[in-house]
Design brief:
By secondary structure, the chain is α/β, with parallel strands linked by helices. The protein has helices at residues 6-26, 31-40, 53-60, 69-96, 99-111, 113-118, 125-145, 148-164, 171-181, 193-214, 218-227, 236-249, 255-263, 271-294, 309-322, 327-352, 354-358, 367-381, 383-394, 410-419, 429-432, 436-442, 470-473, and strands at residues 403-407, 425-427, 455-461, 474-487, 490-503. Helix 5 (99-111) crosses helix 15, helix 5 crosses helix 16 and helix 14 (271-294) runs antiparallel to helix 15 (309-322).
């Protein structure tokens, strides 16, 4: 059975979906996912770290948490991943009217590990990828049919994509570039359709913009600060890192075809396919050109380029059909099967290999790599045991009824709260930050003022011991002992625990 046959495609998609669900229910929640779950417990139209769509989607399936915590957390991403595959097939058929191109597009989408991961992990990239692709699909329908409803749906999808991740806004300049350079579609610029799409996009994204305006544009400043952690240094090193990460994310074998598609001449392709291919090149090219240019100055994350992948895989599939004798595309067709096997294999290893990874002796791998392994072990497997031990210690205090958990790492707070099934864990970052605007934006928990005077336990990783200015916000803080965190019999980390008495918020928390 050939993998590019109809039966081969069905088997591939079925295997991909099975592995995705398997990983979703067995792989521990990442700290990042737990943080977004924390947002979902305090719904808002914006957050300091990003747009709110991921929180809204998690909240929509929170009722499943009584059945399975990780499944409830990732249900929206599983649905987005399935919708993305459906949109890849729909757009490919619409652009080229070829069942073979549509089949190959789906196979290529399943062969890219980054796209597979976005269909499992509940991070902003999952809805951003789906709605970016939806916007591209409605855009093509709009320029072909010139129906107002298509333009409105295009704008709405673009707005939702932007409400998922700020980087999705790059679809807008990609649309403008296509309209400005396409002889077939340039006339649309003189019609009302694009303006309808723009109005719809602004209307959908307006709540997030208003939230930012009310919080001193906290998301924008935070994004810039995060990107510039390693400094603004013009040079090739960051670009080389970004290229290597993209090669890893495309299983290496598909990275060259992806770049080749962006620069491939279209003279040997069917004439009716050239306009759709130019459209796909622009959609991918704008995303890749922007982030690879930015990578010369600041850090770029592998998932930032995800919106450029679906149009690229559809374009590569069309080239495979249009130019089957070209050596690049012959190589690409042969690479599909091993890349799919690699993507599925990564998922199987993630589901089965947790016990082995948890038992690794990080000290055997040298200082640098050993520290990274230890941190990963703790982040993946340490929270349930830490929560159990902290809960036992909290009961030892006479004020147990008013006791609370405190920490100064927002993702530690979110992860522990997630594994304690919603027990509040107070992130003190908003209090200890001196910048009032940034602190206000961090206060997703609108009841933080009610915590004034609370007692409890303050915990931090043994690698990060330091009281900082905690003596300023507690009447008294006394270090108690250390907690060894276990997973399947192995010690995977240590936390320092202190008794904190009398939380003092006055002068730290901005008035509302």
């Amino acid at each position: 059975m050939a993998i590019d046959s109809r039966k081969g495609l069905i088997a591939c998609i079925a295997a991909s979906l099975v592995v995705r669900v398997w990983v979703a229910v067995t792989f521990p929640a990442l700290n990042e996912e737990a943080e977004y779950w924390g947002w979902s417990q305090h719904l808002a139209t914006g957050y300091r770290e990003g747009p709110p769509m991921v929180a809204w989607m998690i909240a929509a399936f929170d009722w499943l948490g009584t059945i399975h915590r990780e499944l409830a957390l990732r249900m929206a991403s599983l649905i987005c991943g399935l919708a993305t595959l459906g949109l890849v097939h729909t757009l490919a058929r619409r652009l080229f009217a070829s069942a073979e191109v549509a089949r190959l597009s789906l196979l290529l989408a399943c062969a890219i590990p980054l796209m597979q991961a976005s269909g499992v992990l509940m991070v902003p990239d999952a809805p951003a990828l789906t709605f970016s692709l939806a916007a591209m699909t409605f855009f093509w329908l709009a320029v072909e049919r010139q129906r107002p409803v298509d333009w409105l749906l295009c704008g709405a999808a673009l707005g939702v994509a932007t409400m998922s991740k700020l980087g999705a806004i790059l679809i807008l300049p990609a649309f403008i570039v296509h309209l400005a350079t396409s002889t077939a579609h340039r006339a649309s610029l003189r019609r009302a359709g694009p303006w309808l799409a723009l109005i719809a996009a602004i209307a959908v994204a307006l709540p997030f913009a208003l939230w930012n305006a009310d919080h001193s544009w906290a998301t924008i400043t935070h994004e810039i600060a995060q990107r510039s952690v390693k400094g603004f240094n013009v040079g090739p090193i960051k670009l080389l890192e970004a290229l290597l990460e993209q090669a890893l994310g495309t299983a290496f074998l598909l990275f060259v075809p992806l770049i080749a598609f962006l620069f491939a001449p279209l003279g040997s392709t069917p004439e009716s396919w050239r306009e759709p291919l130019r459209f796909l090149k622009v959609q991918s090219g704008v995303v890749f050109a922007f982030f690879f240019t930015v990578a010369l100055v600041i850090e770029v994350h592998p998932q930032d380029l995800l919106p450029g992948y679906p149009p690229a895989v559809i374009g590569i599939a069309a080239m495979l059909v249009a130019m089957p004798k070209d050596r690049v595309w012959r190589f690409t067709r042969r690479a599909i099967a091993p890349c799919i096997a690699l993507s599925l294999g990564i998922g199987v290893i993630a589901a089965l290999g947790q016990g082995v990874f948890a038992r690794l002796d990080a000290g055997r791998f040298g200082k640098a790599l050993g520290e990274k392994i230890a941190v990963a072990q703790l982040r993946l497997y340490g929270w349930p045991d830490l929560g159990r031990q902290l809960s036992v210690r909290l009961k030892d205090y006479p004020e147990a009824g008013r006791g609370a958990f405190f920490t100064c790492r927002r993702r530690h707070a979110a992860a522990l709260s997630f594994h304690l099934r919603g027990t509040p864990v107070i992130d003190l970052t908003a209090i200890t930050l001196r910048a009032r605007a940034e602190g206000a934006a961090l206060l997703a928990d609108r009841e933080l003022q009610s915590l004034d005077g609370r007692d409890g336990l303050y915990f931090c990783s043994a690698r990060e011991v330091g009281m900082g200015n905690l003596h300023e916000i507690f009447t008294d803080i006394t270090q108690l002992d250390s907690i060894d965190v276990h997973y399947r019999g192995a010690v995977i980390g240590t936390f320092e625990v202190s008794r904190a008495t009398g939380l003092r918020l006055k002068g730290f928390v901005p008035e509302r």
